[in-house]
Amino acid sequence: MEQIDTLKNGYKIIQDTERFQFGIDAVLLADFAGKEVRKGNSVIDLGTGTGIIPLLMNSICESAHFVGLEVQKESAEMAARSVALNNLTEQIQIVNGDLKDSDKIFARHSFNVVTCNPPYMIDEHGKSNSLDAKTIARHEVLCTLEDVIAAADTLLATHGKFFMIHRPFRLPEIFSALERHKMEMKRMQLIFPFADKEPNMVLIEARKNAKRRLTIEPPLVVRNDDGEYTAEVQEIYNK
Q: What's this model's pTM, rounded to 2 decimal places?
């Protein structure tokens, strides 16, 4: 069943309660990446789903142009309707296509920024129908980590920026894949669900053909002991 929700920036987003709905990871990635987008940049979000990341980043980034690429036709159509609902068709374009075909859909090296909130899971845990919308969003069914980083390599201009949120346990793979595609990790931030728990997400910024120098951002704790969002997360939601 479809519903219309209001985002923190006042935009409306159409979501289907039976399909994958955005979570805090999309909000954190949009904030992490949005601060680094420059005026007039061309930005593409790979696997955009309902278009949540372009919708959030559009109000952060001045005069940037966004493309959301989504392989699932139904999700792409929903995202396009959300863009139209907010009168943002001149700022945000939704394209139905496979990120593995990026070089056939877009001109090579034509974007300043690539963002992605990819499927995290590589095992069978939690997997149901392999073609179910939620499974595709969570598991590497239609694309792998290597596919995502290869697409970013194809699309990014020299010194372009790649932003992604993922699981910390896959950091060795992420570093290796970035190195294969001549992208250097420049910034990283670990996300902790609670202060006394292990981190369960990591935000990364990599740059194409850049020098090696990695900045570790202060860790971000999502919830206080009482289960409420911390002041830092509330600030992100209130921007």
A: 0.91
